[in-house]
Amino acid sequence: MQTIWLTLAGAGLLTYLTRLSFMGLLQHWQMPDLLRRALRFVPPAVLSAIIFPDLLMRNGSIAFSLDNYRLLAGVIAALVGWRTRSILWTIASGMAALYLLQWLALSL
Amino acid sequence: MPVRLLIKAITLPNFLRRVIKYSPMKTPADARQHPNRAEFIAGSLNELPLLLGVFPFGMIYGVLATQALMPVAAAQGMSAIVFAGSAQFLSTQLIAQDAPSLVLIGTIFIINLRHALYSASLLPYTRHLSLKWKALLAYFLTDEAYVVAIAHYDDPETSLERKHWYFLGAGVTLWAGWQLSTAAGIFLGAQVPAAWSLDFALALTFIALVVPALKDRPAVAAAVTAGLIALVTYALPYKLWLLAAAFGGILAGLACEELCKRSG
């Protein structure tokens, strides 16, 4: 019970300091070139590190097969996201694909 | 500092750039007597369309937090203290898996590291503000408030002097929407069956965010490497997979960039 609040306080403080960083704290700090280049890769690395296990892991092992509906729905959503560049359409198409595949599997 | 490069480095979905643009000059009647208020209202109005997307996320977070057995106060408190959708989403998953606190904190920190890029891109626009204002605005520096604010900051036609009020209007509006939708999700929580697979919306959101970020070979290398490391290290103790994968992916991106430079 206590731990969760300490965790939230720590995470909140670090997040806040990240947001304040260049605007308020590090205005005169010359960022090393390597760090500047590395920051660009944070979003693609972090995001796909979350996506891959979510789509490919089932009960702790890798499920690379056609009856892995999350994988299929995720691929469909990625294609829709690539064409539309819309967050809402990506999510809507992915959820719809997952529901459709689950429904088909039940009724066939 | 090469701020311009940093701004370029930030990848935003294009549709977010096309926010409906309310001009502070067009807000009615008392705009001239109360120019600060006009900026605040314009920022707030321009944030509203984004709430359409934010509200379902807030509700899903609330539902997932309840399903992860987070206490109600902590679930709502996280929306106020951390105030970062994607980090909160992933936290519910880690909390459900009983990840240790330090891993949770490190993971949230890594996910939110992109906000440092936003902060850097706002530096030239916030130089004239007091530290108090900067400290206030930093709290509201989220993805959705940033896109609205930076569109206004980047508009060279209007004077910079009062734009922080616009940013504040956008931020406060988003904040209210996030807190309300979280509360609605927590309230619904117990009634939403796990069979609805709402947790899949987390992966889908991240797919939507990662696609526009894959704009060159080093970015793709970073993404693929991180994904594969995540799969391989997923079973490691302490749920360290995200940190391992993030660092590995960043290194792969840097390495690929080096190689491209040499060969090209």
Contiguous uncertain segments of 5+ residues of chain A: none
The count of domains of chain B is: 2
Give the number of DSSP strands of chain B: 0
Number of helices of chain A: 5
Largest sheet of chain B: none
For the report, how would you describe the main beta sheet of chain A?
2 strands, antiparallel
Shape of chain B: globular
Poorly predicted spans of chain B: 1-20
Radius of gyration of chain B: 20 Å
Determine the mean pLDDT of chain B: 84
Q: How many beta strands in the DSSP annotation of chain A?
A: 2
Shape of chain A: elongated
Question: Any idea how many domains of chain A?
Answer: 2
Share in β-strands of chain A: under 5%
Task: Please explain how this structure is put together.
The complex is a heterodimer of chains A (108) and B (264). With 108 residues, chain A is mainly α. Chain A folds into 2 domains: 1-30; 33-107, no CATH class. Helix content of chain A is 77%, strand content 4%. Chain A is built from 5 helices and 2 strands. In chain A, strands 1-2 form a two-stranded antiparallel sheet. In chain A, helix 4 (69-84) packs antiparallel against helix 5. The longest helix of chain A is centred in the first third of the chain and has 24 residues, at 2-25. Chain A is elongated, with a radius of gyration of 20 Å. Chain B has 264 residues and is an all-alpha fold. Chain B has 2 domains: 3-198, no CATH class; 214-264. Chain B has 13 helices and no strands. The longest helix of chain B has 33 residues, at 35-67. Chain B is globular, with a radius of gyration of 20 Å. Chain B starts with a helix and ends with a helix. Residues 1-20 of chain B have low confidence and may be disordered. The interface between A and B is large, with 67 and 93 residues.
